[in-house]
Amino acid sequence: MFGKVDVLVNSAGIIRRGSTLETTDDDWRLTFDANVNGVFYFSRAAVKAMRTTGGGIVNIASNGQTCDFFRLSHAALGY
């Protein structure tokens, strides 16, 4: 439909401010889904598309790790 995939840039992320004790289950799921699962699912789809034609993936992190559970979700990706 749009041609081949040359590059994927994963730079989306969300942050919910507050301590671990203040974090709701919904906040945790939303943050983890955006910051970890989003990277995984988009990267997997991009790798499938780039497997034969080549390309690259760029993962960008922020300095938003001032929030406990935000740090946890990014630690899952090795940032």
What is the tally of beta strands? 2
Specify the structural class: mainly alpha
In N-to-C order, the SSE pattern is: EHEH
Low-confidence stretches: none
Distance between the termini: 34 Å
What characterizes the major β-sheet? 2 strands, parallel
Question: Roughly how many Å is the radius of gyration?
Answer: 15 Å
Determine the fraction of residues in helical runs and give it as a percent range. Answer: 40-55%
Q: So how many helices?
A: 2
Beta-strand portion reads 5-15%
Number of domains: 1
Instruction: Name the strands of the widest sheet in spatial order.
Output: 1-2
Overall spatial form: elongated
Mean of pLDDT:
83
Descriptive key words:
79 residues; two-stranded parallel sheet; elongated; mainly alpha; 43% helix
Structure description:
Belongs to the short-chain dehydrogenases/reductases (SDR) family. One of its GO terms (biological process) is siderophore biosynthetic process. Keywords: Oxidoreductase. One of its GO terms (molecular function) is oxidoreductase activity, acting on the CH-OH group of donors, NAD or NADP as acceptor. There is one protein chain. The chain is mainly alpha-helical. It has one domain (7-75). The protein is 43% helix and 10% strand. The chain has helices at 25-50, 68-75; strands at residues 7-10, 56-59. Helix 1 (25-50) runs parallel beside helix 2 (68-75). The mean pLDDT is 83.
